[in-house]
Design goal:
Number of strands of chain B: 11
Radius of gyration of chain A: 16 Å
CATH class of chain A: Alpha Beta
CATH superfamily of chain A: Phosphoribosylformylglycinamidine synthase subunit PurS
Number of helices of chain B: 5
Radius of gyration of chain B: 16 Å
Order of helices and strands of chain A: EHEHE
Strand order of the largest sheet of chain A: 2-1-3
Largest interface: A-B, 11 and 19 residues
CATH architecture of chain B: 3-Layer(aba) Sandwich
Shape of chain A: elongated
Strand content of chain A: 25-35%
CATH class of chain B: Alpha Beta
Structural class of chain B: alpha/beta
Number of helices of chain A: 2
Strand content of chain B: 25-35%
Structural class of chain A: alpha+beta
Order of helices and strands of chain B: EHEEHEHEEEEHEEEH
Largest sheet of chain B: 9 strands, mixed
Distance between the termini of chain B: 13 Å
Oligomer: heterodimer
Helix content of chain B: 10-25%
Chain lengths: ~80, ~220
């Protein structure tokens, strides 16, 4: 069983108010060297069968249609070793 | 026979009953549509109501967009059937790519619930036909993810083609680009609006009766069709 990870992040030009709130909280806690926080989503997909080009293509299709809204978000797909 | 206007209920829809009531008060026959069917019950128009379909999981509207009934609604909308998305319904229309852009979390992170003043800028769409140009109205606004976002080119195109149906006035409540409260598609039959006209349709409830005009607009369009 292989695991594929899809990370979804708001595009850099899109304001991330949640990340900003976390950033301010971190600053209040004294983590003064943290200058920016962006919050995203991580999806872990367990895959039955080989993770070949066809499998990755179908996961990219899912990421593009459901997991991410490409109007405002970017995504990356990677295979994780078990 | 009065026109039949469907109202979709997704798991987590909240304002479906109010939308049905608004449709009835406008003089049409409301028809309850269930998300899990593909059958549009021969309705003449559809309202996607407010609420939190699928708990807003993933992104607001993202899962509802793939409900079985949405395939039928997307086909019908592309064939010209009037479709009105309110609040969560607007989010579903953007996720379905029936309308451009996206709705993201309010820039100040707070959920907003208040009476909101709007200026109606498009009086040709299926749901704004009955307004006067630049008419100012007040209807309730209640959302956590109501900040309308699109790239500059899309925003310019919306402005140039008169597809911004309503703008927030007297203060932008959520960080929406160019104070956009609602937009329509190129054909004018698909309309999305973040505030809630269905809560301003009856004397004694809500800040005005301004919301009723959205529903009577589509009615006059359907009767004259």
């Amino acid at each position: 069983m292989a695991r594929v990870v899809v990370d979804v992040m708001l595009k850099s030009e899109i304001l991330d108010p949640q990340g900003k709130a976390v950033e301010r909280a971190a600053d209040r806690l004294g983590y003064s060297t943290i200058t920016s926080v962006r919050q995203g989503k991580r999806f872990e997909l367990q895959i039955d069968g080989p993770v070949d080009d066809a499998a990755l293509a179908s996961i990219r299709e899912l990421a593009e249609s459901l997991l991410a809204n490409t109007v405002i978000e970017d995504f990356t797909v990677r295979v994780e070793d078990n | 026979m009065s026109p039949r206007v469907g109202v979709v209920t997704f798991p987590g829809s909240l304002d479906d009953r109010d939308a049905q009531r608004a449709i009835r008060l406008a003089g049409a026959e409301p028809v309850a549509l269930w998300h899990g069917t593909t059958d549009l019950s021969k309705v003449d128009a559809v309202v996607l109501p407010g609420g939190f379909s699928y708990g807003d999981y993933l992104r607001a509207g993202a899962i509802a967009r793939f409900a079985p009934i949405m395939a039928s609604i997307i086909d019908a909308a592309n064939d010209g059937m009037p479709v009105f998305g309110i609040c969560n319904g607007f989010q579903v229309l953007c996720e379905s790519h029936l309308l451009p852009g996206a709705l993201t979390r309010n820039d100040h992170l707070h959920f907003i619930c208040r009476d909101q003043k709007l200026r109606i800028e498009n009086t040709t769409s299926a749901f704004t036909y009955g307004f006067n140009t630049n008419q100012e109205i007040v209807i309730p606004l209640k959302n956590g993810e109501g900040s309308y976002i699109a790239d500059e080119r899309t925003l310019d195109e919306l402005e140039a083609t008169g597809r911004i149906i309503a703008r927030y006035i007297d203060g932008n409540p959520n960080g929406s680009r160019r104070d956009i409260a609602g937009i329509t598609n190129e054909a004018g039959n698909v309309v999305g609006l973040m505030p809630h006209p269905e809560h301003a349709v009856e004397a004694g409830f809500g800040p005005s009766l301004d919301g009723l005009t959205f529903f009577t607009s589509v009615l006059s369009r359907l009767v004259n069709a």
